[in-house]
Design brief:
four-stranded antiparallel β-sheet; alpha+beta; 2 helices; about 110 residues
Length: about 110
């Protein structure tokens, strides 16, 4: 298993939906900022939002295990092998992530219980 590089590409705000459903003064995600980088494999990296992790972990796990080294699905999504562009599940202010497979081997940082 290898590490996957997670880069925050941008934080967004759907102003139309926020005006209709959001609380007064709602802005883009306050937890993450464009340019932040995390590395992950099987576990959520420290500092990454729990909800964002739930939305992207399947792609991280897939890339960490070598799948997606070609292209995802039928080659009709992302043109660059080993890359996925995903977002968190906040419908008013989604954060957009770039996930990239790396050659950095992951190391267990705990002792498995047998």
């Amino acid at each position: 298993m290898n590490k996957v590089k997670i880069t925050v590409l941008k934080t967004t705000l759907d102003e139309e939906l926020a005006a209709q459903y959001g609380v007064e003064g709602l802005g883009a995600c306050p937890m993450l900022r464009a340019g932040q980088v995390f590395y992950a494999d099987y576990a959520k990296p420290e500092g990454l939002c729990d909800e964002a992790w739930k939305a992207i972990y399947q792609y991280v796990f897939t890339l960490a295990h070598g799948a997606g080294r070609d292209t995802f699905y039928f080659g009709d999504w992302i043109r660059q092998p080993g890359v996925a562009i995903c977002s968190c599940n906040d419908g008013l202010r989604p954060v957009i992530f770039k996930l990239e497979a790396t050659d950095e081997v992951s190391r267990l940082d705990y002792t498995p219980v047998r």
